[in-house]
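Section 3.1: Structural characterization of target chains.
Under the original work plan, the team committed to producing a structural model for every single-chain target entering the pipeline before any wet-lab resources were allocated. The record below documents one such target. The sequence was received from the expression subgroup and is listed exactly as submitted; it comprises 299 residues.
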Amino acid sequence: MSRSVKGTIVVEGQELVISNPNKLLWPEMGITKAIFLQQLTALSPWLMKHCQDRYLTTIRFPDGVHGKSFYQKNCPQPAPDFVHVSEHDNISYVKPDSLPTLLWLGNLASLEFHASFDRISDPAHPTEWVLDLDPSLEEEPRIMEAASLVGDLLHSLGIQSVPKTSGATGVQVIVPLIPDLTFDELRRIGEFVGKYLSDKHPGLFTIERLKKNRGDLIYIDYLQHYQGKTIVAPYSPRARIGATVSTPLFWEEVRRNAAITDYNLLNIMSRLHREGDLIDRTAPQSLRPILSFIDNKGR
């Protein structure tokens, strides 16, 4: 049995114990815990921004991406004094509100960060609407084509959107919102979009909820966007062999059939420094006119 190695670092005035810094978390990429914490530090301004005011769920991989994993909602114990929590439904969620907290989670091998759709400050009115394109196949060469069709439809409706890789197999289409609609109202828009695309492209899309009945179709999941549910946060790493990162894209990249595996922990910072956060480029908008159009169409 290898001897456990520990050391301490001081970040923003807080002392953190780092255990086994040389442990390989992504062996194929040569990413040790020390490298992961370095990359997490670089990503922290963007990752914390997209997790702010939300309930955080992490997925921990104590022995790296090939080992066992588990979801963590409750704050791990013991927790340092600098870690803050939000209480909700008898769960103490960690607030990722500082770099020391993020690195503390990283040291515990929290490799993925999933944020709730509902905000802590106003749970009833979301600040974005998300359509999750979920392939039935583990490798789906049509996923960018599918995302492009969704983007084109939204554009024709006057809706500005941002595509984002899940970092796994799918793509999520994000629409920043003025918070004037409820989750239920946005579900009605999602149902309209999902049904339209499934009818127009029956060989590509489905809104069938049961995976066993989807065949090889891409599921337009408009139901996932709801209170109590989560999405992998923009710029969260994923526990995949290639150390992929959930990455917002330009629509031009989607149309050029970008690969989800193109964006990983070792190259994401050069992209961020070059392009910035693409989600910031889209101003919040109201979908109330779209909802009114759908309601009138149904009469």
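Helices lie at 33-51, 99-107, 143-156, 183-200, 251-255, 268-275, 288-297.
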